[in-house]
Design goal:
There is one protein chain. By secondary structure, this protein is α+β, with helices and mostly antiparallel strands. It contains 20 helices and 11 strands. Strands 1, 2, 5, 6, 7, 8 and 9 form a 7-stranded mixed sheet that branches. It has a two-stranded antiparallel sheet with strand order 3-4. A hairpin with a 5-residue loop joins strand 1 and strand 2.
Length: 454
């Protein structure tokens, strides 16, 4: 069943690159092979970084906070965290310094040349958008050659238009907000864009953001993933918002990538079974009709990424809020996905399908919580966000949950109003809370009235 519904299921190369054979078959000529060569080069760089002390697995939250106080360069953009040779301290290494190390210089040159080769191949195949491909890969290659990751990201975002067969490779700007403060950075992905869906969701996103009085210069791309490397292969993204640094996003805009085939695969594997458990039988039966499941999952998942673009985060909030910063970001987007679909259903979903969207959202959240229970991963921010949102709705009696885990919803307007107030409260926490205040809020809301996480 999953094989039929997901378009293609993920496979892995011996190096760890995740790829989707059914999507790669769509590439003309040997363009797909050229994309895979770039992903393999990026994977080699990612593996090399782990071999020489980056992503230190024993780094605790306490060590991270202490080290940042002693060396603020650790928390700057464009630095990696590396354990010293003696093993007793953390050091900051800039991407430009990394390029000076001979083993990395060769790998990054290989990535840059592979990207340029993608452009040459597109031109030789006379693809209609080969000039778009050439501009895209040139910007990315320059980032690997110079180590100036901010400029590479800004130049990429400023392209505004991206080709049908797209590739992205580079350094994830800064993600130091999980419990162990790992600064994952190197990743790549290859995609095939779905033009008409991208146009529809861009229209919807602008309606949502305008309604909030927000005018970020942002775009959303609905794509099928052909492959992931580096951090992308670890995470197997359903969606990803670039950049993760709010200061860059506010200046040049955001690009929201929605990996449609990955979303379909994970929905059918994880969310649909949970949906059958938590929704009334007649509600669950509707999801098998007329593509409802696809429409609802796209609306909810895309709404989550739009939430990242809508969430205004003051500079320094990540250091002020510590390990709970990432949880707060996901709490905002998790609430935003439901609020935005209920308030602005136009284009992506009809009003008659809104109850189905709410049930899907609850099933999505509960599947995230189940994953945390199975893997016992206390660093994953999503289950905290999911539990806090569901408990907020339960506390306000906007939904009910029976002893066997079945949900009942009655008033969609009340659900929207509760989420509206909840989002405003999260904005206050973003702007003013201390780490301990945020921690108390999250732990309280994720454990009552239902202690989902234990």
């Amino acid at each position: 069943m999953i094989q039929e519904l997901c378009r293609s299921c993920p496979e892995k190369t011996s190096s760890g690159v995740v790829f989707f054979p059914g999507v790669l078959e769509e590439f003309p000529g040997d363009l797909g092979e050229k994309h895979m060569a770039v992903l393999e080069s990026v994977q080699a760089g990612f593996r090399r970084q782990k071999q020489v002390g980056f992503y230190p697995p024993q780094m605790s939250e306490e060590e991270w906070q202490r080290s940042v106080r002693e060396n603020t360069d650790l928390a700057k953009n464009n630095t990696l965290v590396r354990r010293s040779l003696l093993g007793n301290s953390l050091t900051a290494v800039s991407y430009r310094d990394l390029l000076r190390e001979s083993s990395f210089r060769g790998i990054f040159d290989e990535i840059a040349e592979g990207l340029v080769d993608v452009g040459r191949t597109a031109q030789s195949l006379s693809l209609p958008d080969h000039s778009l491909i050439a501009r895209e890969v040139r910007v990315l290659a320059d980032g690997f050659r110079s180590g100036d990751t901010d400029k590479a990201m800004e130049d990429y975002l400023n392209l505004r238009r991206h080709p049908k067969y797209g590739i992205w490779g580079g350094f994830l700007d800064r993600l130091s907000d999980r419990e162990r403060a790992l600064k994952f950075d190197l990743q790549a992905w290859s995609t095939v864009q779905k033009d008409s869906l991208s146009q529809d969701f861009n229209t919807w996103m602008r309606i949502v953001l305008r309604g909030m009085g927000r005018y970020p210069n942002s775009d959303i791309m609905i794509v099928d993933a052909a492959g992931f490397a580096g951090l992308g292969a670890v995470m197997e993204w359903q969606a990803n918002t670039q950049p993760s640094q709010p200061e860059i996003g506010e200046r040049v805009g955001y690009l929201l990538n929605f990996f449609d085939n990955v979303s379909a695969y994970k929905t059918n594997k994880d969310v649909k079974p949970k949906l059958e458990q938590i929704a009334p039988e007649e509600v669950f039966d509707r999801f098998s009709r007329n593509g409802l499941l696809d429409r609802v999952r796209r609306a909810i998942t895309a709404g989550h990424e739009v939430g990242h673009a809508a969430h205004m985060i003051p500079e320094g909030a990540d250091l002020r809020l510590g390990r709970w910063y990432q949880v707060l970001k996901e709490m905002y987007s998790d609430a935003f996905e439901l609020w935005s679909v209920l308030k602005y259903p136009e284009i992506v979903i009809s009003r008659t399908q809104l109850p189905s969207a709410v049930y899907f959202d609850l099933a999505f959240d509960e599947s995230s919580i189940d994953k945390r229970r199975k893997e016992d991963d206390i660093t994953d921010p999503y289950p905290y966000a999911a539990a806090a949102k569901i408990n907020t709705l339960l506390n306000e009696r906007a939904i009910t949950r029976s002893s066997d885990g079945k949900y009942t919803i009655s008033d969609l307007n009340q659900i929207r109003e509760v989420m509206d107030a909840y989002l405003k409260g999260l904005v206050e926490l973003t702007n003013y809370a201390s780490q301990s205040e945020l921690e108390n809020f999250i732990l309280e809301h994720s454990s009552y009235p239902v202690d989902f996480l234990h």
